[in-house]
Structures
1.
Amino acid sequence: MKGLSKDRLWSMAVLAPSVILIAVFVYGFIARSVYVSMTDWGNDPAQALALEPIIRWVGLANYQELFTGFLQGRFRQELVSTIFFTVFFILGCLGLGLGLALILDRNPKGEGLWRTIFLFPMSLSFIVTGTIWRWMLQPGGGVNQAPTLLGGQPSTFGWLSSTDALWKFDWNKLPLLTASVVGLVLIVLAVRAARSGDRTRTLVAAACAALLLGWALLIGPNVKLLPAPELHGFNLALIGIIIAAVWQMSGYTMALYLAGLRGIPEELREAAKVDGANDLSLYRHVIFPLLAPISLSAMIVLGHISLKIFDLVYAMAGPDNISTSVPALNMYLTSFRQNQFALGAAIGTILLILVAFVIVPYLSSQFRSEEGHA
Amino acid sequence: MTATPAKAAAAPATPRRPVQPGRVLMYALLVLAALFFLVPVYLLLATALKSPDAISLATTWHWPAALNWASFSEAWGKIGGNMLNSLFLAVTATLLSALLGSLNGYALSKWKFRGANTLFALMLFGMFIPYQAVLIPLFQFIKELGLYGSIWGLILAHVVYGIPITTLIFRNFYADVPDALVEAATIDGAGFWQIYRLVIFPISIPGFVVVIIWQFTQVWNEFLFAATLTNTTSQPVTYALSQLAGGQAVSWNLPMAGAILAALPTLLVYILLGRYFVRGLLAGSVKG
């Protein structure tokens, strides 16, 4: 294809506008956000909206403020909330989606209709979903009234207003907890690497685990992020929002799993049956392992949606409900209500780091395998 | 032949005709799941069709005795203009990003150059970022362009951040088009644009349908940019609905009717063209 240089130039020319736009709007703006997060823009209200604001470089002070500042307890609770939200949201979507897909895979009558019913919330806006569920979860609303339909007493659970929390822990213990969890994961990795005979990997993982756990045991207990203990946990007010989110997104996992199930060749199932597998072991040993990559894709897509979810919370609980708030909502309020741009940019950057943990390994593994084939 | 005894062993001695407990359980579960998905719709309709004074806690679950369609005209009065904003926004942004996506997908899949995959992966990253991480510079940029508060600022944002997904869908779509087709056309002396116009574009209709449906739904439903980049004259319907439902004193038939109006366009698209919608859905997560 040597003689086609003119066409090749055209193909690059066609790509150029998109490449430039993405370079500016994604990478340029991320760099700019990170820069803003290291200044004091907006920390002094008088300077926030000035035409020529005086902006000073403050390094990591905004991050320090978020993680240890007296006023930023809300952000720390949100960070904890978003982790709990993500875990339960993913579990709910995977469980319900897999269940529905397994049922639909048995070819019930009117399969298309059932599928349409399970999937339609995907086409709605989170704002619409939030509006509906906000009404249903009012203190005396539809869900709490539901037991009366069966002759029972109305429930009094404060779906969106509860201030109770489960699994509370002291924020000061966070470094200790993180180090312990990461250390344990590294030990598992080391054991697995040892089993597969990869010596360097075993040594590196084991050394890192020992370092982290040693730190956690010897130094960790004395680290104090805050002068006083500050308890954070899983706020019960999030349950309603998780249910609404699962209502909206579980159809997506159902569609993914169903596509996966349909892709399993019939011969494979037949072969397993010939080998004497009953239904249960067919699922356990043949079908579920084949669905594992789909679960991973779904977890990654749902995980990044969950970490940046903001509109659903806004529509269901309003911007000022601290028990249900998440960092993505806080970022919007901090930046565009209080005009504390630097602090807002810091929250946005933390969100990006969280999402990048999920996405970057995924994208690079997807493309590494592809380049291998090419 | 060997399958027959194994089958009999797997489902021991259940004759075909009579009702199988497994099937009954299956339909029971389906109905239960359908209730979970449809009960909110029932409550939505029942509340929207009640008159404000008929809405009370004790009768939340009752179907209205007298249907009150006035909620819809009242809701339209409050958010109708925003619906038109959303329509203009979604149609324009969708068409522009679909066109860009098609050209990008064509260039990336049929005129591969060194580093094309890396470039594509870097583009795709833009699809996953939390937009909060670019929101402040985006806001400043749109403001400096003089587009703050105008629908065109919002369109620009949606077109740019739509490029990754539209490129992805078209790239995968064109990957299934045999390279021999393109090679044959080059031998006939056709160039980059001729091949696109005569070979690629005519077979792209299904790709365009998938992309347009997907982008239309995304743009119509989006909230963060809508809340940040617009003012009262250009706000799309999601923002207007959040304002309508956010007030504490409002009677609930109004936001419910508003929610129905705001949901209707994307819901219709989904019901009429569900097959393509699902394809867009799957394309967003299964890379190629």
Note: DSSP finds 13 helices and no strands in chain B.
2.
Amino acid sequence: MRKSETSSLHILLFATALFLLSLALSTASARNPSLAQSGMLVFEELFFPLRQGATNGFQSISRVWHGYIALREDAAKAKRLEREKRQWEARFRDLQTIAQENRELRSLLDMKQRQSLQGIVSSVIGFERSAWLRSINIDKGRRDGVEVGDAVVAHGAVLGQVMSTALRSSKVLLLVDAGSGIAARVENTTPLGEQEPRSGPRGVVAGRGKELCTLQYVAATETVSAGDRVVTSGLDGIFPRGIEIGRVEKAEKEESALFYSIFVRPSVRFDEVTDVLVLRAAFVDDVPAEAVSSPKKTLSHQASSSSTIQQGQGR
Amino acid sequence: MKQVVRYFIILFLCTLLVLVCERVVASSFLPGYLVPQLLSMLMVYISFHESGQRGLLSAFLIGLIGDFASAILLGPLAIAGIFVFLIIHILRQHVFAASGMVAAFAVFFSSMLVQIIAGVVRFSFVDLPWLFGGEMLVQALVSAILAPLVFSLFRAAFREHTERR
């Protein structure tokens, strides 16, 4: 017999012996379970701290991991909420704009009803502020019945006059434009004891291309003071009487001068106007006859327009 | 003699360490089917690197220690160790044991074999439900994937005591 065969035989015999021993152990431990469990008890007792440590360690890692996941979820949630917040802010701004428009439209409607005016509600679609022209563009034109010379009001006060019309839009010359002139009347501040404001002197509110307008042709013999209300007199046949133009900012008179030097601050904030009311010529019936028949001045920017005011009718 | 005793002490400690890693540490945070069968890997490693009766006895003892730790029945893993050793003993003349691929294949099949043999023996003696299922296959695959790495650790532990082929 060769050496390797002998060795293999020895291994086989040894394996058989170990196999039989294993079967014997299996039989013995099956009959007496405590035999098998004794090893486990030693194993468990020996490695209990390690098992506990491993479990605790894993739980700690698990907690950290879940905390990290929760943080990431919170971050994602915060981003989503931030996005929603921006959307709501935009929506809120839209609503504020709508509310503002609503207020303006209500004001225009209120004015229309109060003064029984024929008017066309229109939205501002553009501004023009050059050195020689202060105007706005509105979204109503000839097709809608807007005509050159129509009066335009906003926020219950005078805004300007239509200086040119296209089919679907019009250009409005603002009150503050240097070419603008509107027949006006001063309402003196009500003294104590009087119920109604006293009707004061008449004049012409003319634009200067600046923030303030001037009230011209008010005789130095009249009484005008800062804070007095300036309204349309209706004598120009364009604006109905009694629509507010502004307030007297400063009224000065020199000793030798015939007229006051009066500065008027317009009531309308031109930058904030979004909706306007274009007044049709129908109100002209209400205007006093002497005003209709009086000589008219043509706007310098619109030679052919009907922006008519009275020259020298201030008194 | 002294060297033999030292070898078996190292084998015993190594088996305990493997059991701790497999049944204490890995079991704490991995699902059962992903826990690598380190005990089977140790059997395969010893079977590749120890010849003769010492190798057979080592495989048997590894299984027996595993049985003691399992607390169900003494013998199933020891019998599986004997079979693993015998099969590898026959094949070891024809393969290059240091190859990672060989290690992976050997561990994969040995892992399956150990589970089947241990299952059959347990099923024969104790009324335990035993199913050969997908989990066994996944566990064998995980073990096979980790085998080259684990074998290099075993190589370091048994550097002075195992035969080199």
Note: The longest helix of chain A spans residues 33-115.
